[in-house]
C-alpha cells in the first residue's frame, strides 16, 4: 500500500520528467476533496494560506528544487544555486512585481548555508521553514488531496503499480523514509506528532557519488545504465560461494551474499559499467529497505512510506525496495508544503 | 569490552601479518586455563579431539584460509584454490604421510563448491563442517582460552586497545557479527544455542570490490590508502548542507549526511583516491555498526562481538565501528574450530 502522485493507473514508471511534473501540478490545481474531510473539518492543513505564495524553494544537499505558479517546477544542482536564484529574480519576482519576502518561502539546509547569497540576490530575506516539518506537511497534504497517491509496487503485476484508494484514515502511524542525498527516517503518529528516529548516510548521494566516480554519468544516465546491467556479474551470490543453496540457513542460491563481491574476487577482470551501476543501485536500495524494516519493527510500525528524489518513479529502485517491504512512496514533499 | 588475539597489551593495531599469526598460535600452544573451567568441567569444547587434526581449511567467498601444524597459517584468494590444495598435498600430506580424510577438516561454502576438485587433488574426500557451527565453536574457544582476547577500542586511549580480563562468565548472550565478504549476524545464547538473525551484503567484499574498481589495489593496499585519506573531501557532512549544525535535530556539523555525497555534487572535480577509499571504509564499517546495533536492540542484547577477516586489526575500521558500539571483536574463527 502506498502513494505516488507522479504515476497514474494506466502508465508505467518509465515516464518521468517535465510532462509528468506538469501533470502532477495540474492534478493539484483541480484538488480532489480531502479523503477524510468529514473527520477533520477544521484541520489546519486544509485551510488556504492567508497570503498565497508565488514560489517555494527547497535547497538540499545535492539539488535545489523550486515550485512556482502552481504549474511549473525547476531543478538545479546545488553548485548552480546562483543560476537558480537569478531565475527566481528575473522570471518570478520581476514578472510578478512581488515582494519576495511575502511571496516565497524556503527550506532545506541550503536556506541556512546560502542565506547571505539569497538575501543579496533577491534583495530581501526569505522566510525559512524547518525541513522535517515541511516534509511531514507535504506528505500529509499529498495523502489527503491527491487521488491515487497510495499504491504498492508488484513487479509481477501489469502495470506494476497497484493503487489502493481511501486508505488515509488508517494510514497513521507510519514510518516515513525520505531518501535524498542521505536518508532520514521519521516516525509519524499524526500530522503534528512526529520524530526523526534514524537515518543512514548511504542514500541517493552515495549512488550518485560512487556511480559518477565509476562511470562519469549524471544521475539519470546512471539510472538508465542500471536498467541495462546484470548485477550477478558483479555481486557474489550464495551460489558463487556454495555452488547452490546454503540449505542449513535457508539461503537460496540467488541471494546476494556480498555486494560487489565478484569484483573483489577477480579485480583484474574487465567489468561492464552497467553491471556495476545496477549492483550499486541494488546495494543502496536494499540497505535502505532493510534499515527501514528494522526501524519499523523497533517502533512497532507496520506501514512504511518512501519518498524523496532518489526514487523518482524508477522501476528497479521500487522493485528492490519492495522486495523487502511491499510498500513504496515517493513525492517531492519539501517544497510542496511551502507552496501550499 | 571485547576480544582479539592478534594484538597484545603493549602493541598497536598496526602490526599484523605472519609474525602476529605465529604469536597467536604460540599462545594457543601454551593454552591458558579456561576462564570458567570450574563452572563447566565437562564442557565438550575443552576436551582434546580424539584424533588431532593436522590441518583445517576454510574456503569462503573471497579467501581460502588454512591452519596447519599448530603454528603456520596460509591464505590464498579463492581463484588460487588449486594452488592452495597443491600446497596441502605437497607440504602437509606428503611430508606427514597422513591420510587426508583422517587429518583434515574443511568448512565454508567452498567446501561444497569445490568438493570434486578437492577430492581429486587430495585423493580423498574431506569431512565438511557447517561454517556457522565452526564460527561459534572457534569464538567460544578463543573466549575461554586466549588471555587478553577481550578488549574495547578507545581512539583516545594509548594504546587504543583497552583489555578487560575474566569477562567470559558474563559474556553470554551476545551478538556475533562475522564480517567476511558479506556479513552474518548471529544471536549466541550459549556455546550450543545460536541462530542467524540477520546480515548484510555490504561487507568486506563490497569494500574490496568497489575499492578495487576505483583504484585497482588489493585489500591491504586499500587499507593503507584509507589511512592516508580525508573522507571529508568526498562525504557530504551536515555542515556541507546547513553550513553548520542542524540544531533542531541535534545533528552536529561533522556528522556524515551522505556518504560520497560531495563526489555527486561536483562529479567533474578530480578526486584523491585515498579520500574515496577512506570514505568507502567508513561507509561500510558505519553501516555494519548501525545494523549490529539495531539487531542487538531487537533481540535485547547488550554485547556485540565483531569477527572476520575484514577487521584484521585495522585501527580505522575498529574506530568507526566502536563509534557506534564501544565493542569490537575479531579473529579467524572458522578454520580454528576445525583445527582444535
TrEMBL record, chains A, B:
A cellular component annotation (GO) from this entry: nucleus
Protein name: Pantothenate kinase 4
Keyword annotations from UniProtKB, A to Z: ATP-binding, Coenzyme A biosynthesis, Nucleotide-binding
NCBIfam families according to UniProt: panK_eukar
GO biological process: coenzyme A biosynthetic process
Coiled coil residues, start to end: none
Signal peptide extent: none
Organism phylogeny: Eukaryota, Metazoa, Spiralia, Lophotrochozoa, Platyhelminthes
Taxonomy, superkingdom: Eukaryota
Plastid is among the record's keywords: no
GO molecular function, one term: pantothenate kinase activity
